[in-house]
Amino acid sequence: MRWILGAVAATAITVVAAFELTGNDIAPSGYCVAEAGGISVEVDLEQAKWASLMAAMAHERGLPPRATSIAIATAYQESKISNIDYGDRDSIGLFQQRPSQGWGTVEQIMDPLYSTGKFYDHLAKVDNYQNLEVTVAAQAVQRSAFPDADARALASALRGHSRAAFACTASANAGARDDLGDWLNQTWGPVKIDRKGRWQVIDLTGKDTKTHGWALAHFLVANAAEYGVGEVRFDSKSWLAGQEDPRWVKTENASAKQVRFRSAT
Fold first, then answer.
1. pTM attached to this predicted model
2. pLDDT above 50 for 1
């Protein structure tokens, strides 16, 4: 049994809601925090992974941060951002999409890459979705609704518009996967990674370095436990795995033109 906290801010009042999550194959220990616009949102490691996936895929498709907010808000409402294989009638997956309603096969919908892509396909067909309230746009795509403060804070951090704003406490799994490069390519599109000693380096030449770099850095942190990342550095900041409190700290050895990360071992 696992619990997460989601902070939903309204004016000066913060309402804290607790949800039970099951059906998760990611390490149960650890949590992540996103902070943006005066809002602090705590998520577990599975939620962090799938929210970072939604952010990366929206970026790769050239969609605005608003699209990420809508996707996260919908997944919050439908599954608490958990890739579950059950739901109302034949609803399954992150977005509780239904095979009987033409969203795809069970196997396809249970693949978060596919289900997120299908969500964005449908969202792109909603007229003027960028100017709609998040809950209204979510309702237009999948008849979903959820207060949007948490989603906007997560989207702002994971899309890189809030800097040093997403951090996790988790240490790497003992059986951490070693195919992080493949996961980056599946979510972000082609990402060139160079190795320099113990560091792996993503060069940001020609990019909007601060926004793009922070989005990548936060993505690496969100997936660190599963893929064995021990440290991420960018823009005079460093994140270390296994901290008691999730945070970025100042460091002199972090460029604003490169995202660097290294293994936990």
1. 0.86
2. no
